[in-house]
Design a protein that fits this description.
Length: about 180
């Protein structure tokens, strides 16, 4: 695996280090030891799949608070997404800053989202599927969200968006400092 730290400390873009031959390729997509060596949370306890019918579907910005803050490893297994993370750690030098990366089934790139970050995405194609690995189980008491269009963050979403946004994601209030 090839790890590139984003401009947000502790968040990584991960690319496959492929071994290719006539059959195709082989690559490792997760390794506990490689995650531990970089200070990344290696304990992945739950996997989720998000299937999205329409281009322009927006999900987020989701996170969990203590004691169930979660790290995520996100990969697009079908279609393409514009994936966004926000650093919500008040002590961080990049507090309230965001980063985006395009994850596609073709590029097989992954995004590691550390604890203390919000995560969301916009689909760039119809029939898009996203695979998440989580370091904590979902806890509705700790689940939170920030508005995808909150001026406190100024996220620049591509093209048209919002064809499909859940009522829950629309209901999040602006982020309080």
């Amino acid at each position: 695996m090839l790890f590139t730290e984003t401009r947000l400390k502790d968040a990584y873009i991960i690319e496959l280090d492929k071994i290719e031959d006539d059959r195709g390729f082989f690559a490792r997509s997760w390794c506990r030891e490689e995650f531990k060596q970089r200070g990344m949370n290696p304990n992945l306890v739950q996997c989720n799949i998000s299937y999205n019918k329409k281009k322009g579907t927006l999900r987020g910005m989701h996170y969990q608070v203590a004691p169930h803050e979660e790290a995520k490893l996100v990969r697009c297994t079908r279609g393409a997404i514009y994936d966004v993370i926000i650093d919500l750690r008040p002590e961080s030098k990049t507090y309230k800053k965001w980063v985006s990366v395009e994850l596609t089934a073709d590029n097989r790139t992954m995004l590691y989202v550390p604890e203390g970050f919000a995560h969301g995405f916009q689909t760039l194609q119809d029939e898009t599927e996203v695979f998440y690995q989580m370091s904590e189980f979902y806890d509705p008491e700790c689940a939170r969200g920030a508005r995808w269009d909150d001026p406190a963050f100024g996220i620049e979403w591509p093209g048209e968006h919002g064809h499909v946004i859940s009522a829950k994601d629309r209901s999040y209030s602006e982020y309080l400092l």
